[in-house]
């Protein structure tokens, strides 16, 4: 006989949310949601996703706006919020700079450039967009290469920026 799941956890999403709420603070949940919010979004929607009250979310979003981590946009019928992409990029670059040496970043940069060059050569195209136009809908390997190229391109930009931080340190030291 198979044990019956607890009624309150019949839905796995509910169980994951309950665990997330028990393991994080309201502030952590709000930050986690706003970090992934790339389109202007009302505080009420962020509150729902963060499983937090609207007044607490509004207060936290206003504080994060003052810190420059969040953009507040006049939505006509109320404020909308999204992450500040410039600060998000800056945080990603600083994280790379802190976690990897200059030599490691240069090695990664070389690998990423090789990955992009290999895909360019394989398909004889110059961009991920051009590759997407030539792929058949059921060409799984091709679409995997497309995703790899887009990811490598994004990581190239971040690695270059992190290397630039090392260069800047040499100038100001």
What features would you describe in this structure?
The protein is mainly alpha-helical. The protein folds into 2 domains: 77 residues, Arc Repressor Mutant, subunit A; 86 residues. The protein contains 8 helices and 3 strands; from the N terminus they run H-H-E-H-H-E-E-H-H-H-H. The protein has a 3-stranded antiparallel β-sheet. Helix 6 runs antiparallel to helix 8 and helix 7 packs antiparallel against helix 8. The longest helix has 33 residues. The mean pLDDT is 91.
H and E order: HHEHHEEHHHH
Low-pLDDT segments, ≥5 res: none
Could you estimate the helical fraction of the residues in percent?
55-70%
User: SS-based structural class?
Assistant: mainly alpha
Overall tally of structural domains? 2
> Strands across the major sheet, in which order?
1-3-2
Strand content: 5-15%
Radius of gyration: 22 Å
How many helical stretches? 8
Q: Look at the structure and give the mean pLDDT.
A: 91
Number of strands: 3
- Write down the overall geometry: globular
Gap between N and C termini: 70 Å
Largest sheet, in brief, is: 3 strands, antiparallel
Pfam families: DUF7342
Protein name: ArsR family transcriptional regulator
InterPro entries: ArsR-like_HTH, DUF7342, WH-like_DNA-bd_sf, WH_DNA-bd_sf
Write a brief caption for the model.
The chain is mainly α.
Task: Considering the chains and any ligands shown, give keywords for the structure.
single chain, 173 residues, mainly alpha, Arc Repressor Mutant, subunit A, 3-stranded antiparallel sheet, 8 helices, 7% strand, globular, ArsR-like_HTH, WH_DNA-bd_sf, WH-like_DNA-bd_sf, ArsR family transcriptional regulator
């Amino acid at each position: 006989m198979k044990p019956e799941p607890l009624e309150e956890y019949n839905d796995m999403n509910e169980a994951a949310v309950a665990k997330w709420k028990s393991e994080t603070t309201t502030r952590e949940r709000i930050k986690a949601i706003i970090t992934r919010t790339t389109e202007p979004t009302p505080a009420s929607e962020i509150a729902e996703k963060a499983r937090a009250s609207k007044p607490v979310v509004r207060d936290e979003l206003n504080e994060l706006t003052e810190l420059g981590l969040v953009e507040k946009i006049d939505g006509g019928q109320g404020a909308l919020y999204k992450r500040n992409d410039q600060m998000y990029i800056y945080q990603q670059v600083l994280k790379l700079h802190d976690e990897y040496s200059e030599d490691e970043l240069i090695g990664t940069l070389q690998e990423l450039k090789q990955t992009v060059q290999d895909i360019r050569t394989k398909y004889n195209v110059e961009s991920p967009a051009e590759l997407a136009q030539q792929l058949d809908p059921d060409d799984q390997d091709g679409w995997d290469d497309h995703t790899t190229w887009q990811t490598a391109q994004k990581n190239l930009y971040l690695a270059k920026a992190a290397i630039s931080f090392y260069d800047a340190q040499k100038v100001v030291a």
